[in-house]
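Notebook entry, structure prediction.
Reason for the run: the old model in the group folder had no record of what sequence produced it. Starting over properly, with the input documented here first.
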Amino acid sequence: MEDLLGLNVQVSSKENGVDSSAIYDVVIIGAGPAGLTAAIYAGRSKLNTLILERLASGGQITVSELVENYPGFPEGISGAELTKNFERQASRLGAKIVSADVKGVEKKENLFYTLTEYGEVKSKTVIISTGTDPEKLHVSDEPKFRGRGISYCATCDGPFFKGQTVAVIGGGDTALYDAIYLTKFAEKTILIHRRKELRASKSLQEMAASKSKISYELEEIPIKIKGGNKIEALVVENVVTHKQKEIPVSGIFVAIGTTPNSKIFKNLVQLNEQGYIVTNPKMETSTPGLFAVGDVRVSPLKQVVTACGDGAIAAYEAEKYIAASIKK
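New structure, fully documented this time:
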């Protein structure tokens, strides 16, 4: 058959848990905290709910060793454990979670058609919860050392650098969180930032300042990575003097921002200059029946607790949208 993007795909009516003959009430794209919370609320409203996730449930929070600012866990909880709780709750309330990569979404009349590798999925509403991907350094040899010294997740790869010297690139909260975490393993952690002052919260800056293993290279930008089979040094350039120097390191942790996973929806939603999806307070996008939640949308704060709030609102509004459509 020919799918909505003009590609020829042969699929059965039900494959890998995706029922292409069904019309779901809600299809949620992405199983991070926002998407899973939306599924919980949709399930409690008895909406037939399908979650499509291309990787593993939980999104970026799964790699957090300790989440200390989510209410109800005074001693903190690991991101992986918190995710499992979300997933169990969503499944118990009837949501079906399927591993599938979404290729595109189209709206025809009153239905949405979500294209996956297993064919089209029809639904009355769609909630986008696709999150973001980490920004890359875009310096020479970065692809060569990706996964071989360059990491975008300190909590994932920090233990591999026990007793070594590592660099953290960035000056925001994530960069300082990473630097502080890495002091558990690395002998020395060098924080490299392009500006004279850090952007991170004052409390994090104070915490980092109390760690003797953390040093700073401010007003410096990375321009080249040196090494053979493994990283040996990072070449940086001063943004004021333009002088270059080598900093011996064994690992580089990149924490310079994120890119929203919104490209495949650009024909259906309004995006801001950075590519984040614009919504109103009801999580509605510029297409009726299509909602966006979590890190992929424009919001002043990107935390688990705010993502969950987004998901709850979107599910509530999706239910209202479906009810209003039935009355017409």
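Summary: Residues 14-133+258-327 form a domain with the FAD/NAD(P)-binding domain fold (CATH 3.50.50.60).
The old model has been moved to the deprecated folder.
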